[in-house]
Amino acid sequence: MTAIALTIAGSDSSGGAGIQADLKTFAACGVYGASVITALTAQNTQGVTGIHDVPADFIAKQIDAVFSDLAVAAVKIGMLSQVDAIEAVAYGLDRHYARNIVLDPVMVAASGDRLLAAEAVATLRRLLIPRALVITPNLPEAAALLDTNPARDEIEMEAQARALMALGSSAVLIKGGHGEGPESVDLLVHAGGVARMAAARIDTRNTHGTGCTLSSALAAGLARANDLVSAARAAKDYVTAAIAAADRLNIGHGHGPLHHFHQTWRES
Questions:
Q1: What pLDDT score was predicted for residue 177?
Q2: Which of 38, 136, 210, 240 is catalytic?
Q3: CA 111-236-37 angle, 5° bins
């Protein structure tokens, strides 16, 4: 049976993050991708100039349309900027008994532009974190969800991940890309323990869409029936290679995208 993953997220008009990055990642990872668009952004590699939110009732219609026809094996949730959008997604997932939910709590774009309304953070904690198999915050996002300072080392990263699990998520993949040092270390904290995933830090400005790509690669692995730890390790490897190949692309004048198809494109 064809593995199918669904992304519920915002659209990035420049193609590097959001829905576009998710669908590219699904395809690169051998999974058929479906999508529910929650917002339209006017965005490029230099920043976000506008956000147009999709009405909550239409988000619900998209969810119902996909689940009523497609056998969705995993769901990745990205940008949800408003309270009513979060509610529509949470209740829609319940209606269709969605499984293998990966929540990427997108709050701020790589350019620094805020993507989540302040009043929506509490709703995200209350409605979506408890429904997630795994959430994938970076260091600033984990700190914002816990109303504390970003973790400074792996001990603090694990402690914050466990605090987020206490909010209801089965597991937390806390990402260390915003940290310092020669390695970028992610920790997957789950009921069975802690899986440490490290990669050499890559010197490039082309990191647009990194968080979207990691969470969708993780969802792709789950859709292919991999266990959580194996799916997370494969996602980390894929993202690391996509970042390493990013400078082979020449896209825009700011933070360019990863090279999602680094394994298949022939360079001209």
A1: 74
A2: 210
A3: 50
